[in-house]
Amino acid sequence: MFKTADTTQQQRHSGPITDRKHMRRYVLIMTILGALAVGLTFGVMTWDNPAETGSRPWWLIVGMRRDSLITIAVVAVCHAVATVAFQTAVNNRILTPGIMGFGSLYTVIQTTAVFLLGVGGATALVGVGPFLLQMAAMVVLATILYTWLLSGRFSNIHIMLLVGVVIGGVLGSLSNFMQRMLTPSEFDVLTARLFGNISNARADYLPYAIPIVLVVVALLWFRANTLNVIALGRTTAQNLGVAYKRELIIIMALVSLLVATATALVGPMMFLGFLAATLAYQFGDTYSHRLLFPMAVLFGYTILTASYFVLRHIWDAGGAVTVIVELIGGLVFLIVLLRKGRL
Amino acid sequence: MSITLTDVQKDYSDKVQIGPVTTEIQSGGVTALVGPNGAGKSTILTMIGRLLDIDTGTITVAGQDVVNSPSKAIAKILSVLRQENHFVTRLTVRQLVGFGRFPHSRGRLTIGDEKYISEAIDFLNLTDLENRYLDQLSGGQRQRAYVAMVLAQNTDYVLLDEPLNNLDMQHAVQMMKQLRRAADELGRTIVIVLHDINFAAHYSDKILAMKDGKVVKHGTPAEIMQNEVLTEIFNTEVNVIDGPKGPLAVYY
Ligand SMILES: Nc1ncnc2c1ncn2[C@@H]1O[C@H](COP(=O)(O)OP(=O)(O)OP(=O)(O)O)[C@@H](O)[C@H]1O
Ligand SMILES: [Mg+2]
C-alpha cells in the first residue's frame, strides 16, 4: 500500500518535461540536430578542397572556412536566442526584432556614418573602436525603441506592430534620402556594408563579438526562470512577483546586444531567428527557456550551415547564403501567419 | 492586519472615474465584491493586487504599501487572479499550478513545492486532469486550474475576479465551499468578485457593494440583503425572501 502511494508521488511532478515520451523526443531531436551540425561542420571544412590533404595550403583553406563557420555559429546563437527572448517579452510568437525595425535602424546608422564621414572616413572606420561605437549606437537606439513599444502605451499588439512597421518605414526613407545625396563611390562603400554576406564576414570582429555574445547568453541563461514566468504575460508575471517593467528593459537591452552583434558581422537578417524559434517551440514543446534556447540555436546553426554547404560547395554561390535563408524564413513566416490566421 | 484603501482613485477618462474609495477589508474570512457591470470591481481588485497603477491614494496589505514594497515580497503574501487569462505558452495543468510556487522557489521546485502543487490540484478536483494541456480543457476546468495556481501560491491574501465564471452549479458550490474552508481552516483572507448575490450572501462574511465607481455599501450579508438596498445597487427590482438556507434575493 505504501509502495503505490510512493510511486504516485513520484509520478506527480511539475517539470518542463511532462513524461518519459516527451523526454525521449527532446533528446532524440537534440541528438539528430547535434549530429547534423557536426556532420555539416565537417563537410563544409573538408569538401572539395583543391589542395592536397594535410598540406599547408589545405590547412589554410580549412582555416578560412573555419572562420566562416565560427561566424555562422555566432550569428545563429545571436538570432535564435534573441528571438526566443524577444517573443517571450512581447508575449507573441510572430513578432521578431527584425520585423520591429531593427534592420532599418542598422541601415540608418550605417548610412549616417557614410553620409557624415564620406568614403575616406567610412573606410577608415574599421577596427575595434568603430565596431564598438556602432554596436553601442544600435543597442541604445533599439533598447529605447523596444521598451517604448512595450511600455503598455499601445493597447493591442496590432497597433504595436503597426507603429513598429511605420517607424521602420520612416527610418528607411530617412536612409533613402541620405543615400540619394551620396557620391557613387560612397554608395558603393555603403552597399557593401548593408548586404549580409557570410563568405566575407568581418572575421576581424570575432574576437570582440564572441565574448559579448557569451556574456549576454549567460545573463539570459541565468534569467531563464524569470523568462518562463514572463512568458505567461504581464499580469500573471506581476502577480508572481516579477518586477515586470525592469525585467523588460533588461531583456530588451540583452536582445538588442545580440542582434546588433549579428548585424555587425553579416548585416541584417529578418527571419533566421523566427525560423529557429518557431521550430524550437514546435519540436521542443516546452515552456522552459533552458530547453528552448539550445534547440533554437542548433536549428539556426544547422539551417545556416546546410545552406552554406549547398550554396557554396554545390552551386558555387556562397554570397547568397543569407539571402536564401531569409527567403525560406520569410516563406515559413507567411505560412505560419496564414495558418494561425492572427498575430 | 487587513487591506486598507485610502482615497484610492483611478481616472480612465473625464467621464469614467473610479473612486475615491476609502475602506478597510477585514483580515480573515471572505469578502464579496458585488455591483453592476462597469461598477469598478475589477479596477479596485487589480489595484489592490498592484496589477494596475493607482492614480491617487494608497493601498496597504498587511501593513505594506502595495505600490512601494518590492513586488517579490508582496507576491508571498498576496495573490490575484484576473477575469481574463490567456497564455501563449503551451502548459499542462500541473505546470501552470507549479508556476504558483515561483515566489517561493524562484523556479527551482522542491519536494515541498510539489506537495503544495498536488494539494492545490486535489483541492479543486483536477487530479485526473493534471497532465492535460490547458488548450484541451473546457472553460470551467481551465478556470479551476487558474484558481489552483493562485492557491498554490499559498498567500495570506487571495484576490479573485469572478472565479465562478464558466463553472456549473456543482463546481461553483464546490469552489465556494473550498474558499470558505481556506478562510476558516487556514485563516486566509479572500476577496472575491461575485455576480450572484445569493452566493455572496451565503458564503461571505462581508459584502462590499460598488456602483458607478464608488463603494455604496459595506456590511454583513444581513445588512445588504434588503429589498431597498439591493434594488438601489443593481438598478433592478429585487425582493428578498426567506429561503431554506437564509435570505434569498429574487430578481427575475
Ligand atoms: N483600460 C480601460 N480604459 C478605459 N476605461 C476602462 C478600462 N478598464 C475599465 N474601464 C472602465 O471602467 C469602468 C469600471 O470597469 P471595471 O472593469 O472595473 O468594472 P467591473 O465592475 O469589473 O465590471 P464587470 O462586472 O463587467 O466585470 C467601466 O466603465 C469600464 O468601461
Ligand atoms: Mg470585472
From TrEMBL, chain A:
Domain of life: Bacteria
Keywords from the named record: Cell membrane, Membrane, Transmembrane, Transmembrane helix, Transport
Chief location: membrane
InterPro entries: ABC_BtuC-like, ABC_transptr_permease_BtuC
Keyword field contains Transmembrane: yes
Single GO MF annotation: transmembrane transporter activity
Gene3D superfamilies cross-referenced by the UniProt entry: ABC transporter involved in vitamin B12 uptake, BtuC (1.10.3470.10)
Subcellular location: Cell membrane
PANTHER family on file: FERRIC ENTEROBACTIN TRANSPORT SYSTEM PERMEASE PROTEIN, PETROBACTIN IMPORT SYSTEM PERMEASE PROTEIN YCLO
Protein name according to UniProt: Iron chelate uptake ABC transporter family permease subunit
